[in-house]
Design brief:
It is built from 16 helices and 9 strands. It is α/β, with parallel strands linked by helices. A 9-stranded mixed β-sheet has the order 7-6-5-4-3-2-1-8-9. Helix 7 packs parallel to helix 12, helix 8 crosses helix 12 and helix 12 runs antiparallel to helix 14. It is globular, with a radius of gyration of 21 Å.
């Protein structure tokens, strides 16, 4: 098992109604059958299963991520109870270190929440989609009102109280990257996780033809601003791509491996795959009746945890940047007609972005590449090669297995 974190869906409802949300607005309505909140009894079972998992796989670090819906709809006592119980487990296991984080839309953040979460050592991540214009375009409340001003107020309180500000930003290519970058600088962000929207081949809205790369063009402009700023904040995506390109580290994949537990204890591989359709992520497994590793007996769980970066479409296997891209996020490869037997909807975007970053690294750090016989990537040449008919016809022996996930 490759995961070192649990996403705990402690609240299955939200006080916002973001139009792009895979939980509520991309066709999956299974949340309606979920309890609104996770119970203390479910906590006890989760911690017991966590103990069994850590011992079986000899894990030394583990993270609990409080998520939703909106996790701050949960009462404060829930977090006190959870941390007290997990602290006891940590002392019992002795050689395991627990870490905690929470991802919130920020609307409910105030000084009392920040002080409590700080005291419990729960790192706060806030979802802010760039400028007020971009944020309020999609992140609305249930009355149709924008949430930027309320979230911004919460962000200021976090920065003032805890002296850091970690942000998750879903990219909106209609908002200028220069303005987005500057807006987060003004907030004094410590780190920003820029997130590529979770579109599939069935609902990808951007390019009118295969030669358009709006996501790459946006990210390249952002990268150039960021790399030339001596006082830059941390951007996870760029750090990961740079590390891969210069050989500092090599990850098995390009997205964190996490297991999801719903409010009623149901176990799922990853919640972003809800964008693939109603009930798509359901495994019919529950912490009350299954162990965490049982997820490997689910076809989707096995693909996500074991095969998603090795069982790639034929085009990916021929790609010169495969070891950096690793096929992209699984959700971006989905199409109802043939499941996951497709390159990412952002395939050309990623090739273009990776090529650009490689060129910049060679320019800035020539000594790292000296004597390594590494050529500059040519985005157009790579793209022409991958669009060759003979490449398109490459069909790995497991292609049918990937296609079986179609609906």
């Amino acid at each position: 098992m490759k995961f070192d974190a649990l996403i705990l869906k402690i609240a299955s409802r939200c006080n916002l109604n973001c139009s792009y949300c895979f939980m509520y607005n991309l066709g999956d309505t299974t949340y309606k059958k979920q309890p609104k909140f996770m119970t203390v009894d479910t906590i006890d079972i989760i911690l017991q299963k966590t103990k069994e998992y850590l011992i079986k796989y000899n894990k030394k670090k583990f993270t609990f991520i409080f998520h939703g819906g909106e996790p701050l709809l949960m009462k404060k006592q829930f977090f006190k109870t959870f941390i007290a119980k997990s602290n006891r487990l940590e002392r019992e296991l002795r050689n395991v270190a627990f870490h905690y984080s929470i991802q919130t839309n920020g609307v409910l953040l105030d000084k009392s929440w920040c002080e409590l979460l700080g005291k419990l050592d729960i790192n706060i991540g806030i979802s802010i989609d760039g400028t007020k214009k971009a944020h309020d375009m999609y992140r609305l409340d249930h009355k149709g009102k924008g949430s930027y001003d309320r979230v911004g107020k919460g962000a200021k309180i976090v920065k003032r109280t805890l002296d850091y500000l970690d942000i998750a930003c879903v990219i909106n290519v209609n908002d200028a990257p220069e303005k987005v970058y500057t807006s987060f600088k003004k907030m004094k962000a410590s780190m920003v996780n820029y997130i590529i929207p979770d579109y599939t081949h069935d609902n990808y809205p951007y390019a009118a033809n295969e030669n358009e790369t709006p996501m790459a063009d946006w990210l390249i402009r952002l990268f150039d601003i960021w790399i030339n700023d001596p006082n830059r904040y941390k951007i996870l995506m760029f750090n990961g791509l740079i590390n891969g390109l210069i050989g500092i580290s090599k990850s098995d994949d390009n997205e964190s491996r996490v297991l999801v537990v719903e409010t009623n204890g149901e176990i799922e591989a990853i919640d972003s795959l809800k964008a693939c359709g109603h009930g798509f992520t359901k495994s019919n497994m529950n912490v009350k009746t299954h162990t965490f590793s049982d997820i490997l007996y689910s076809p989707l769980g096995k693909l996500y945890f074991e095969d998603s970066t090795t069982k790639l479409p034929g085009k990916c296997l021929q790609c010169p940047v495969m070891n950096i891209c690793r096929g992209g996020r699984l959700v971006h490869r989905f199409k109802k007609d043939n499941g996951f037997n497709n390159p990412s909807v952002y395939c050309e975007d990623m090739i273009k972005l990776i090529s650009h970053i490689q060129h910049k690294m060679i320019q800035l750090f020539p000594n790292l590449y000296e004597g390594r016989a590494i050529e500059k990537m040519d985005y157009i040449e790579i793209n022409n090669f991958l669009n060759n008919n003979s490449i398109k016809k490459v069909m790995p022996v497991y292609s049918k297995e990937l296609e079986n996930f179609g609906m």
